Amino acid sequence: MIVTNVMAGLPYAIIALLVVAVVYPVIDYFIDRHGLRKYPAPSIAGFSPLWQMYYNYFGVKYLAVHRVHQQLGPVVRLGPKHVSFSSPQAFREIYGHGTSIIKDAFYDNQAGGNPNMADVTSKEVHRGKRKNLSFVFAAKQIIAMEPRVMAIVDKLLKAVAIKSQGGRVSSQDRFAVSKEGTFDLRPWLNMFSYDAITNVFWSQTYGFLDRGDDDCLAQNPDGSVQSVHAMQTFHTGAAWSVFLGHLTPFWYGLFKRQLLAWTFRNKCGDNFTGMARYLATQRLQHPPAVPDLFSNLPVTATAKRPDPMALEEIIAESSVMLNAGNDTTQSSLTNTMYFLARNPDKQTKLRKILKESLPASSIPVASYEDLQHIPYLRAVIDESFRLHAPLGTGAPRLTTEPTVIDGEHIQAGVTVSNQTWSLHRNESLFRDALAYIPERWLPENPDYTDEERQNLKDFVAPFSMGPRACIGRNLAYMELSICIAGLVMAFEWKLGQKDFVLKYHERFNLNPIELPIKATPVL
Ligand code: HEM
Ligand SMILES: *[C@@H]1O[C@H](CO)[C@@H](O)[C@H](O)[C@H]1NC(C)=O
Ligand SMILES: *[C@@H]1O[C@H](CO)[C@@H](O)[C@H](O)[C@H]1NC(C)=O
Ligand SMILES: *[C@@H]1O[C@H](CO)[C@@H](O)[C@H](O)[C@H]1NC(C)=O
Ligand SMILES: *[C@@H]1O[C@H](CO)[C@@H](O)[C@H](O)[C@H]1NC(C)=O
Ligand SMILES: *[C@H]1O[C@H](CO)[C@@H](O)[C@H](O)[C@H]1NC(C)=O
Fold first, then answer.
1. Is residue 454 packed enough to be buried (19+ CB in 10 Å), middle (13-18) or exposed (0-12)?
2. Ligand 5 centroid distance, CA of 520 (Å)
3. Is the CB of 472 under 6 A from ligand 1?
4. Which end of the chain has the lower number of beta carbons within 10 A, N or C?
5. Which residue is closest in CA terms to ligand 1's atom 15?
6. What is the DSSP string of 171-202?
7. What is the spatial distance between Cα 294 and Cα 200, in angstroms, rounded to a whole number?
8. What are the pLDDT tens digits along the chain (523 aa)?
9. Entry's Gene3D superfamilies (predicted)?
């Protein structure tokens, strides 16, 4: 009886599905409430989020958007309500200060009910959170963390010394070395960035570099604890939520939390929050003797701040630090080492400059205080940010009132974006845009004009810009400088194969896949 009812209902269900999936989007397209039909769109992008989802699924959306702009011009529609801009002017207009533009619903989707500082879309709530966290990232606190980062760079160099000889750092080491002594550097840089952020933030170093594996603990909301693989957890989880993130919040909720809640990929996202929950609860139970970055969070009531941050909020912010502090950092480390291995002349030049400018006691691990004054080191890092920014895609923003962007009148309620991948490769801003030339960044280099240097300042934006720009920028430069300088002073680097080209998989960030490399000690 029930079965026949279901069967009888099936045609209606199919019709309903067709209406929702096909007819409604087409009608919506022609009604054109936001006046977007005048903009060119690739294939079905004007009707459906499937265009963006398709390219996200395969991890190449940044390339698809880049190509579409080359084919269709500076203003292109990427989704039913999403317009992408490609003029330099647009970048400032979208991301800069003093606009009414906010983060898109895409971020609400990522947040799942308890938004962290990076996800939250409301300007007011964001301002409050940013204020709460600004103490954490004040220059003074970051400088206090230097010795911790230096100690972990030291561990990384020890691990690389072992890997370069074909050894294993411990009996748990899961990472292979080939007969010729080639190994994949990426997971080691990733384990470095994990060990560094867990140390400076929660004083709970994961110890991945000591063991050569990425097993860590995650805590479920019910308090139970399990062991998870850190690297896999986040990547699979992130790919999944970015893929579904293009749906409107209603459809996202339905898919992610109802229909697909059981899937492996979805669980991974939960495991990742679990890692942050475990770090935060452990840290609250065992305050360290020496202050860490967490010490600056308002987690306990004081006379000045009578109501402290709630546990769920602490977990949400912990999760963004674990994520932002790790993934972008390891991507930029991998990119920079790739460019240096690919360009031996730049690598040799950097090594020479470092060794000449530093006292013997600072070789190979120097403090950021010393390294800050070496422009070539900064140029090497900035040039890799330009060519391969860890966030390549255009971070989606939402107009809240009619706005003029790049001369176009855009109504309220439209998603707008502009991707750094394309911006950073614009030949009219950067001469030889596709070449890795750190020298272009050097102050007063006569080979480049002041205008060219100004373009670098204005239009290379790996940390985004405006009110939602990266809060961890100083911490990032500190970690990157100490780590890159150490790796270059201690070893000479050669690509595993001479013509190796680094490949990427884009989730939200643009993640390098593997970097097979050889390291020869040079100290
Ligand atoms: C090379 C390293 C890094 C790069 C390239 C980078 C890049 C970025 C970018 C592009 C954004 C804007 C994202 C968006 O609009 O969706 C951002 C935001 C953010 N980053 Fe970073 N980041 C780096 C390191 C870090 C570190 C080490 C931390 C902290 C531990 C951090 C914490 C954050 C936070 C909390 C936000 C959100 C800020 C807000 O919405 O107010 N980042 N980052
Ligand atoms: C590159 O920059 C120029 C000059 O600012 C701009 O006119 C042009 O549209 C940009 N190119 C692309 C592909 O966005
Ligand atoms: C995530 O946690 C579940 C248990 O809740 C576990 O079965 C699964 O293996 C974990 N996934 C990863 C990638 O660690
Ligand atoms: C950290 O970044 C690496 C590389 O992108 C990734 O494999 C790992 O899952 C990330 N982990 C977290 C917790 O963000
Ligand atoms: C900022 O911290 C205070 C505790 O001092 C907390 O009550 C408040 O909710 C936080 N603000 C936001 C927007 O998270
Ligand atoms: C983004 O904006 C910059 C400048 O603001 C421009 O040069 C670049 O081409 C834009 N790219 C895309 C894809 O929107």
1. exposed
2. 50
3. yes
4. N
5. 395
6. TT----B-TTS-EE-HHHHHHHHHHHHHHHHH
7. 8
8. 344 454 555 666 666 666 667 777 788 788 888 889 889 999 888 888 888 888 887 778 888 999 999 899 889 999 888 899 887 777 877 887 777 788 877 777 665 557 788 888 888 888 888 888 888 888 888 999 999 999 999 999 999 999 999 889 998 898 888 877 899 999 999 999 999 999 999 999 999 999 998 889 989 888 899 898 887 665 555 555 556 556 666 666 655 555 555 554 555 556 778 888 999 999 999 999 999 999 988 888 777 777 788 888 888 888 888 887 778 899 999 999 999 999 999 999 999 999 999 999 999 999 999 999 999 999 999 999 999 998 877 788 888 888 888 888 888 888 888 788 888 999 999 999 999 999 999 998 999 999 999 999 999 999 988 888 999 999 999 999 999 999 999 999 999 998 999 998 877 778 898 999 999 999 8
9. Cytochrome P450
Whether 205 is in the pocket of ligand 3, judged by its Cβ within 6 Å, is no
**What residue ranges of the chain are covered by domains with CATH 1.10.630.10?**
135-391+462-521
d(CA 504, CA 482): 25
Q: Which residue from 86, 405, 424, 457 has its CB within 8 A of the most atoms of ligand 6, so it is best to mutate? A: 86
Q: What spacing in Å lies between the alpha carbon of 391 and ligand 1's midpoint? A: 9
